[in-house]
Amino acid sequence: MLSLIGREIRDHIVFVLAPCVVGLLMVALTVRSFLNGVGMTFVVPLAFMMSLPLLIFCILGSAQMYGDRANKVSALLGTLTVTRNRILVARILVGVLTILVTLVPPVIAILVLMRLFVPGAELWYRMVGEISVTLALTGFACYCAGLLVGWTTSRAGLIAGNSLLLLIIVSLVYIKGFGPEVMGVLLLCIAAMLLRIWHTFTSTAL
User: In a 10 Å sphere around its CB, with 0-12 CB exposed, 13-18 middle and 19+ buried, how is residue 25 labelled?
Assistant: First the structure.
């Protein structure tokens, strides 16, 4: 499994590193905002910056699946007695790790800086937690949308499908906001997409 994960990271290193770099820039923005005494005004530019990783998560999933179909990666690995289930799990783990490495550092930075600079910071912890979990689920939903659409031979369909699903997911969060309700909807969407991805990936002839 570790070798499969390593292969996925090497094959898609740009899309794995790019959102992580954005995450580090978000940390730098947060630190600078607190040190300059501008308080919570960093939230707005941070929200705009987060839209870029969401797009990259979607592209990462698409690249994994589209590259597999175009280059017959699964067919090659199948000759090495690696099951499709293991291949799919390895890909999803890479997506999850990328999302966590992107989001966890900014969240930790925000919590530490709030504790140091914001009086009564404990009152904000629940809000930060809900926003963080919602963003993580949104990122994973975007990644799953990429996996779902990526298993196609049409580049036009790939672009159109990614754009449509990404717009739907982001619009859902924009309309519903952050909290348990939108988390539940995102979990249902993720479960449905994962089921469809698993069925399509494991049943399609290579």
Answer: middle
